[in-house]
Amino acid sequence: MKNIERRDFIIGSLTSLGSLAFLNGRCDTISSALVDEIKKASDLNSVAYNVAVLGDTHYDTAPETVYHAHYDESNIHAKIQHAEFKRNGEMWRERCPRLLASSAALAHENKTDFILQLGDIIQGDCDHIPTHQKMLDDCIKMLKKPYPDNMPFLTVVGNHDFRGKGARKAYFDFAHPFMAKEIEKLTGEKLDKQLTYPIISFRKGPDIWIFCDFEKANLNKICDIIDADSTARHVFIVTHGPFTTYANTKSYRWRLGGSPRALKSRQRLFDTLSKRRGIVLSGHTHSTTYYRFENSLGSFCEFTGNSVWTERSPLTATPNSSTPEQYVPAERFLEKMRNKEDFHSEINFFKPSLKEYYETRAAGHYRLKVTENSVEMEFYLCDSRTPDRVFKLK
How confident is the model at residue 250, as a pLDDT? Predict the structure, then answer.
């Protein structure tokens, strides 16, 4: 059955058998096992589901001593990080709980299969392993609490999630068993191997989901996983750092495949996503951003979410940029940049194929709606329960 999907072959066989029976003027009996397999294949192909989506959350609380009593003040970034502690404590005092409550209310009102958080779930910077583990545990319990009981909660690793002394081991010791349990709950199937980053993949019905440690994942291995599953209906890649170069002059290489060594594999992943009409879901940039690419091989989309609702967050969904031409910052922002040539090289890899672009610093929550023939992302500004924008991802 080379190049023929098994479910398509089965369903086609049923159609042929039914036609023959009709032409012969009789009703032939088809084996019950074949009927069951046909029904299962058909059901998988028509699975529809919804996902409650949160961007970066940077959970923290005031006073700082709750999670940062052991913080190493010799850190060269101490001034910046203390400002972040204050920012996070303020937004989690009142704004972010309202955002979370609105997302959870929609999950109660509408069928929702799981919650997806796009990394940097906590602030980190504890510099004390037990405190870091407590921060993770407190955060997960708090985020899950308002949603329907026992709803699976999936999160992808972000750079803040293991930031601080001893935090990398503390995070992964927590994340690997937690994610394994949540994925088994979601799929209803026991994982056949131990779950470990930098790449985690599983099937949700007819769709393949791939979670990546964006600083460690090998792009060729991601492509190999996608190529090996030719029957997947939709292909989702979840990564904290975006695949698409973010048009920010300071952190444009801090992304999935951002190393100069990944030039060849970056092209392969771009082509693989285009051929499969893949979807990338990411965070990290503290923006709500939508990209749609199209070339001779096909098309794919990337959507970046943001739930960091600071006092400076825009209170409208009006984009800063809304056309592919606006993807590149004005030259006046590049005048003092040392690596201007490298920045343009990164931007110019993506720009020729960019057909739609939307970017705003506004925060909010999101709902992913997956059907047999389409995938849409609804953007709910701040704590709204009415979508301000709907993005067609497929």
Answer: 84
Alpha carbons 138 and 57: distance in angstroms, whole number: 13
Q: Nearest to residue 50, comparing CAs of 383, 381, 365?
A: 365
Residues 51 and 8 in one domain: no
* Same-domain check for residues 252 and 304: yes
pTM: 0.89
Per-residue pLDDT reduced to its tens digit, 36-46: 554 454 455 56
Q: Is 318 exposed, middle or buried (0-12, 13-18, 19+ CB in 10 A)?
A: exposed
Nearest Cα to 303, choosing from 250, 369, 227, 259? Answer: 369
- Radius of gyration (C-alpha) of the chain in whole angstroms: 23
Q: Do 5 and 94 share a structural domain? A: no
Same domain, 118 and 32: no
Pick out the chain residues at pLDDT < 70: 1-46
pLDDT at 251: 87
Residue 132's domain is classified under what CATH number? 3.60.21.10
Residue type for 111, please?
Answer: K
List the domain range (segments joined by +) for residue 216: 47-392
Cα 363 to Cα 385: distance, rounded to the nearest angstrom: 14
Backbone angles phi, psi at 366, to 5 degrees: -140, 160
Statement to judge: residues 16 and 87 lie in one domain: no
Phi, psi of 231 (to 5 degrees): -90, -5
Count the domains in the chain: 2
